[in-house]
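User: What would this chain look like folded?
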Amino acid sequence: MEDLTGRRIVVVTGASSGIGLAAAEALACRGDQVVLVGRDPARLQAAGDQVREASGERPELFRADFAVLDDVRGLAERLRAAYDRIDVLANNAGAIVLQPVTTIDGFELSIQANHLAPFLLSHLLRDRIGRLVATASGAHRSGALDPDDLNAGLRRYRPIRAYGTSKQANILFTAEAARRWPDTPAYCFYPGLVRTRIGTDSRLVALGMRLLPFRSPQKGAETLVWLAHQDPSRLVNGAYYADRRLRRPWPKAADPQLAARLWAASARAVGVDR
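Assistant: Here's the prediction, encoded as structure tokens.
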């Protein structure tokens, strides 16, 4: 693995378990200063203990619930107060929502937690970020994104379609961020089918984890860690990766006009300038 950057400050959201925790542990063991963001205080504390045991250094812990946009705004304020720079923001937090849920902010929970919240956090930290890395998914092929109606998924709700739409948004956001913020490299990746907590309340997901070749969180996190440290000259800004290789997403996640519309709609939704 190329590493021309030395010790970095890396903020990992969704770091209480799964891919986020595995990535945080690997980055800390490489010598990075890791900042863990999670929703549940007890699980976040346990994750911090695990990273400390593995690396010898205790990471900083920040609690925030991405189902509440004011939590995201508060998180950004606390991160700005704590760090003059954030070398890498890993937008990893995500959820498969099994029932239709409308957040306190008025949005379908999947699109808010998986897209609007990291979109807002990235904007609020824009001047501090050296690099963006987003955890996307092959589930984007199931997406049905309509920027004119971010709550379209609430009608005839289907969990996989709602999740896929949010992952489609992750890929489109990454590409548009690269166009609008060319001085901040942005990448997204598919970690593969990973055995994590996400969606485990579903009997179908639980059955799939027993029958399908799911990989470990450590394996799923490898591309995140690689994208966090690889020299930008060896990567394609705004691109989608899997298993440390450049991949082409489905056309619905590679449409620049759709990406621009999503950006404008998201900015209006969370109240930031374009």
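The radius of gyration is 17 Å. If you want, I can go into more detail on any region.
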